[in-house]
Every structure is written in C-alpha cells, then in structure tokens.
Specification:
The chain folds into 3 domains: 98 residues, no CATH class; 31 residues, no CATH class; 154 residues, no CATH class. The protein has 9 helices and 6 strands; from the N terminus they run E-H-E-E-H-E-H-E-E-H-H-H-H-H-H. The strands form 2 sheets. The protein has a 4-stranded mixed beta sheet.
Length: 290
Amino acid sequence: MDESALVCVIGHEVAKEMFRLEDPIGSTIRIDQTPLLVVGVLGPVGLSGGAGATRVGRDINLDIHIPITTARTVFGDTVVRRTSGSFQASEVEISEVYLVAPSRDRVVSDAARLRRLMSYRHDGMDDLGMIVPYELLETARKEALTGQWISGAIAAISLLVGGIGIMNIMLASVTERTREIGIRRALGATRKHIVSQFLVETGVLSSIGGLIGVALGLGLSFGLNVLVPWLPRAPMIGKFFPADASLPTLVSPWSVIVAFLVAAATGLIFGIYPARKAAAQDPIVALRHD
C-alpha cells in the first residue's frame, strides 16, 4: 500500500484459466499493458461478501485484487483505451468496500456505527447502500426457526391425534377384555400387573407405528435421490424437468432416533389412562361381564 507496489492477488478461476499447468505465484499478468506480479491466489469462494456479491451479479472468483494506492497511482481516476478507429474512456470509482469485524459479536454494533457515520457524510444515503451478511443470516435463522416451530406444532398436533387414536383403541380393548381382566385378578394379578400389561401393549403398538414411519421416511428420502435425476429421462413428463434435476436429501441419525422415541413415548403416555381404567375394575363385576 505504501509503495504502490505492482502486485496483485488473483481469484481462483483466474488462476485456473491463465495458469493451467504452472504455479501462478511469481508470474506476471498485464492489465492495460501494466505488468503486475502475482503474489497470491484466493481459494474458491461461494457467496463471498454475503448477499452483496450475489446482488451485483458477478463471480468473486474472477476478481483480480490490487492495492488501492496502485490503482490510483498507476491507472488514475480515468481509464482510457484507444484502438484503431475508436476511443473509450471510463471513470474509475470505488463501487464496493468490504469491512471485516474483529469478532462476530461486533458485527452488528460496528455496522450500526458505520451507518451513523455514512448518514452524516452522505445525507439521506441515496448514493449508498449497506449489506450486513450477519444480519441477513440472523434474519434467515429467525425465519428458519419460525418454520421449525410451525413444523413442530404440526407434528405435535399429529402426535396428539395419533395418541388419542391409540387411547380409544385401548379403551375399546379394555371394554372387550373386561372378563379377561376379571379372571386375571381372580387368579392373583394385582392392579400393577394389569397396568403393566396394557402399557406394554400400547408401547408395542406405538413402537411398531414408529418403525413403519421411520421406514417410510428413510425410503422416501433415499427414493428421491434416485427418482428425481431420472425424471428428465422419463417419457412424456421429462420435458418439464431440467437435465440436471436433483433433490439431494440428508437424514441425520439423531432425527431418526428422536422420531422413534417420541412415537413410542406418545403411545405410553396415552396408554396410561386405559391401563389405569382396566386396573381399577372390580374383579367380581369384571367376572360377571358378558
């Protein structure tokens, strides 16, 4: 910076295009006949600069970075290109500035300070816009969290409906097996034994349902990986899908375990009332039940 050195750092794609079979470090490139020594190569980047890069509509991997003092000293504020029969001049302006906060916790506070500074120096900020990727990420995180809460609420309602169904089935089973309960009590079974019997039955019932749900979820997830890439080649409907159509899915082991445990626990929780009702029956009355 101090020496206005004729050096540059090139993007990943620039290095691939211009130096396919050699190390670009130490090589020379020319910009408007000005030789620049390559002193660094950027690693491949995706959304560098957050949403800012995507909004300007360019690939950061194709950038060539030089010291700003070099840009002003060597190239000046106006770039003039003369060719046979044509003349072109363009004014060089700083269109983007990327600032890096020393820590993640200071991103929002530093952005607020910068906004106040820019609002003072650029009254109305009509010629200036600020994009804070961390704020965009926070907004996206909050939106994702909202979606998770909504999905959780839908899942809770589904579990409630399923639990009520299990409870109704077990209540009907208790009514149908009243005489059986009376016989067991007459032979010495305690109320604890009756409660355990019906809780085991509801646990097995809900666990089987949980296993079926896990199998369907895994089958659907892995099936989409195979089905979606095949759709462009499908007769009649293939033209409606892009040639590179894909829908990658990811199934985390903890989600499978949690889903199964929740399904099993739902059956046990909703099976408590039928089990207690069965255990509370009078053995004499139960034996007389037809």
